[in-house]
Amino acid sequence: MENKTTEVFGANVERLPLKDLIKRIGPGLIATGIVIGPGAITTAAMLGSNFGYTLIWLIIPIVFMGITFMMVTNRLAIVTGMPTIHAIRKYYGPVAAGFVGIALFMACLFFTMGNISGTGAGVNLITGLNWKVGSALMIAVVIYCYFTKNVYSKVEKIITACILGMIVAFYATLIGVGGPDWGETGKAFVSFQIPAGGLATALAFISTNAAVTTGIYSTYLGKEKKWKKEDLFNGVMLTDAVIHIISVVLITGSIILVGAIVLHPTGQKITAPAQLAEMLVPIMGNAAKYIMGVALLGAGFSSLLGNTQRGMVLLSAGFDKDTALESKAIRVGCLICLIVTMIICYSYGGSPTQLILMANVATSIATPVAGLFILLLLWRKDVNEGYKKPTALRICMTISYIFVLFMTFSALKTQIPNLIQSITLLF
């Protein structure tokens, strides 16, 4: 009688040595550069300045959810043979794919607004130029990168340099202020409390640093990187996801601690990205503005460079159009997005933090929308046929999605009125 036992793919794939794993990563670093923009810096600073060490425990769900989202979306890309939104189109139809593409694009578009103001703020701190002039210069550099060859390679190298610069800048600041109170930090890590008024900021922080949008976009970057199905099992994708989330936590964690040490005891609140530099002047002197200027410029530029591409790729995927980074449609689309967001930012009369608020709200809405279809795909038997059942990933994704829903609907009760008010200010 014929043996019906079928060996599932991946069972005999050997893990690569660490040096080979390092050579194969890349999408996670680009994702970090996109995630760590002015919005991430501002919300992290707000957590520390407004609530001290209390919300440092949010790093735990960010690590859990960040790795889960990256691994689930990359797995689905491997087992379906296509990036996330294309898989949604195949299994749930063009309407679902289009809806997800639009939701994710809008989240990215709002982030671009925050990135423009943040990049300008960084140039202003370093050179004294008007933030609009500074951001225009950086946008010109971004456009040049978009319209040259080997876009992926250039983006990966530039963003890696920006990430390293941010890590150095923020840890220099953390050392300069004397370091954290480790006892308070340890207690906060196991408190799992959200103080009064902290839910909206907590949601903004989580939705910025552990958004399913990042995982979805990584599937298209993986295609550019030419990842193969063996990379799901030989450690490449896991290493990429871990390095992504570690770099995010290293940066945002240091910002929270600086806010808790320097700003929280004074009772002063962060209302603009550049304000953190002003608060550090008594401790670090004139060097404070340059340190924060480099950090903001690195964060804004790297996020601006990758985020606009991300938005156009996800929108194009929603409508089954070309998603290659060097395609004419993506390049022209990025140019149009930059022009539109520049006009909005330069004519906007409110605080830049209002733009960041809208970006965070948009992301918190987009994550449950796209996350639902990802969760459904992960639980489909036909999708995982021929591969080992992803039991652990299914459990982790379900927990993450429920947590996102709870945080989103709880916080949106207060954020929606603020979002409506902010949108009216744009017009």
From TrEMBL:
<dbReference type="GO" id="GO:0005384">
    <property type="term" value="F:manganese ion transmembrane transporter activity"/>
</dbReference>
<feature type="transmembrane region" description="Helical">
    <location>
        <begin position="158"/>
        <end position="179"/>
    </location>
</feature>
<protein>
    <recommendedName>
        <fullName>Metal ion (Mn2+/Fe2+) transporter (Nramp) family metal ion transporter</fullName>
    </recommendedName>
</protein>
<feature type="transmembrane region" description="Helical">
    <location>
        <begin position="391"/>
        <end position="412"/>
    </location>
</feature>
<keyword id="KW-0812">Transmembrane</keyword>
<keyword id="KW-0472">Membrane</keyword>
<feature type="transmembrane region" description="Helical">
    <location>
        <begin position="355"/>
        <end position="379"/>
    </location>
</feature>
<dbReference type="GO" id="GO:0034755">
    <property type="term" value="P:iron ion transmembrane transport"/>
</dbReference>
<dbReference type="InterPro" id="IPR001046">
    <property type="entry name" value="NRAMP_fam"/>
</dbReference>
<feature type="transmembrane region" description="Helical">
    <location>
        <begin position="53"/>
        <end position="72"/>
    </location>
</feature>
<feature type="transmembrane region" description="Helical">
    <location>
        <begin position="92"/>
        <end position="113"/>
    </location>
</feature>
<dbReference type="Pfam" id="PF01566">
    <property type="entry name" value="Nramp"/>
</dbReference>
<feature type="transmembrane region" description="Helical">
    <location>
        <begin position="125"/>
        <end position="146"/>
    </location>
</feature>
<keyword id="KW-1133">Transmembrane helix</keyword>
<feature type="transmembrane region" description="Helical">
    <location>
        <begin position="241"/>
        <end position="267"/>
    </location>
</feature>
<dbReference type="GO" id="GO:0015086">
    <property type="term" value="F:cadmium ion transmembrane transporter activity"/>
</dbReference>
<feature type="transmembrane region" description="Helical">
    <location>
        <begin position="329"/>
        <end position="349"/>
    </location>
</feature>
<feature type="transmembrane region" description="Helical">
    <location>
        <begin position="287"/>
        <end position="308"/>
    </location>
</feature>
<feature type="transmembrane region" description="Helical">
    <location>
        <begin position="25"/>
        <end position="47"/>
    </location>
</feature>
<keyword id="KW-0813">Transport</keyword>
<feature type="transmembrane region" description="Helical">
    <location>
        <begin position="199"/>
        <end position="220"/>
    </location>
</feature>
<dbReference type="GO" id="GO:0005886">
    <property type="term" value="C:plasma membrane"/>
</dbReference>
